[in-house]
Amino acid sequence: MNNTHGGKPHVLVLGGGSVGLTTAADLRKTLGTEVAITIVDSRPYMTYQPFLPEVGAGSIDPRNVLAPLRKILAGTKVVTGSVTKIRSAENVVVVDTEDDVQLEISYDYLVVGLGAVPRLLPIPGLAEAAIGFKWVEEAVAVRDRILANLAEAASTKDPKIRKRLLTFTFVGGGFAGGEAIAETEDMVRDALRYYPDLHASDIRFVLIDAAPFIFPELTEDQRAYVLNQLRERGIEVKLETFLNSVEDGVVKTSDGDEFETDLLVWNAGVKPSPILLEEGASDLPVITERGPLMGKVDTLADLRVNGADGPIDNVFAAGDCAAVPDLASGEGKFCPPNAQHAVRQGKRIADNIARSVQGRPLVDYYHKNLGTMATLGMYKGVGRLHVADKEFDLRGLPAWAAARAYHVYAMPTFGRKVAVVADWVTNMISRRDIIGIPEQSSPRAAFELAANTSSKPK
Ligand SMILES: Cc1cc2nc3c(=O)[nH]c(=O)nc-3n(C[C@H](O)[C@H](O)[C@H](O)COP(=O)(O)OP(=O)(O)OC[C@H]3O[C@@H](n4cnc5c(N)ncnc54)[C@H](O)[C@@H]3O)c2cc1C
Question: Smallest Cα–Cα separation from 280: which of 85, 103, 94?
Fold first, then answer.
């Protein structure tokens, strides 16, 4: 037992996302002050990622999709820093903080919920030109860029510049990418009413995907429905198409197309937190075979990590960074990376740690998928609900309403739930805001300009 916590077992949680926040909050509820808990994340808040497409579309204020760890997890030590080493053989984790201090944190129980990062491909120009859509700052930047471009395009007389400003390219048509393009296109359609100089036909939204379909989690019928709906709205969906390059603002695709774009959003897959695979950074066992599980922590059904000599008793992993057997789907299946599983796995880990502390047997993770739902803009959606062994297809308004209702239920904290609903009500009454502030990323630019011009003698 770790002696630095008054003889109490010390639970160290890596990552304050869906897994980490849920584990820490539930553990505190179950065991009260019987355990000491530390949570480490490079951000001081949890991001409710399913709401990011609505942030990108201006339907939800960015801060309202963030849950502040220190406020929610009273009594838990929150460390803001990057996990750089996991030495499970010694029960130690190394964390780099902002001031370049390396903290060595020892633990009795370790929970790994480090999530995933975008999976990039070696495409010329991609790393320099593209933006992801996984964090709130990215969703905000995408919205700001699109809205600012509308304002600039409406004021330029140069048709070439105008075309570039109004061409928005998204790569990857999974749930995150599909929702992102559908929601932002809907925002532009809404904003155009304030731009008499722009017409819907001036706007080009392009969705590129290497697969023969988008929204792979849906049934064939539903995929066809979404594809039709996006195409009817003027979104150009290029299937079985690769992005070949994006250099000097020019996109080249494998179907021979070539066009200028001012925005390229990359949503073509994620991979587990890279420190898990990095040489010398972590000694946790990870899946090394090529495929969707590569780099994920090898995890057993009770969410303990599967070591070379059997379960590592005090180390648990879950969420997007873990290969968790999906018992509800059958032998050999693994849980897909989504918040629905991550939150429930966090709860199972909290309960299993409580069981371990109390000397009771652990319980396997079992969750039957509740379904999948996506919003595609205001009053538009698609999804499948699983209720009592029956499946229901939802489309249009019912799917949109069900998706919003579910995510408000799942959004952490009562205050944030209320704030999200208040954003929606405000937008319904006074319409979505159409201001884009891309200068947010360089807030000192105006001051520096003033300093440069006023300090020069005339
Ligand atoms: C745009 C978008 C839409 C989505 N929509 C849905 C949806 O509709 N339904 C659904 O179920 N799922 C959805 N998902 C997926 C869902 O959000 C994730 O599966 C879920 O958040 C995974 O939880 P996690 O705890 O594993 O990872 P995360 O929630 O990503 O948390 C990981 C945490 O670890 C931290 N971290 C990572 N590395 C380090 C490090 N080295 N040091 C310190 N901290 C670190 C990160 O800062 C982060 O806070 C969506 C995802 C995106 C991006």
Answer: 85
